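Hello Y.,

Per our agreement to keep a running log of every chain we model this quarter, I'm adding this entry. I've kept the format consistent with earlier entries: sequence first, then predicted structure.
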Amino acid sequence: QVQLVESGGGLVQAGGSLRLSCAFSGGTFSLYTMGWFRQAPGKEREFVAAFKWSSGRTYYADSVKGRFTISRDNARNTVYLQMNSLKPEDTAVYYCAADKSPAVITTPTWNSWGQGTQVTVSA
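Predicted structure for the entry above:
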């Protein structure tokens, strides 16, 4: 059974940076598409970024394009989300997700989820 553990969240001022990490276990990491979603209070969980290893392709929500970068280290079974130029509207719980073949990459219907890590951006 796949397990995902996020880390790296915290409090940062607007314009600052954070790097989230997600440690993967319980499967063959290289077979999985890895992604990040986020959920702000009172809002639905939304797609942030994904990395499809089989094609090497990355996907980003328009709201984070140019500011966030997803990467993965297959040797460490870890996926990262580098977040730069953070804005208060980026405040949310960030979730790591894994799926061998997500039906729709941008919808939160992936098979496996982490427990989430809080990111708070102050104005």
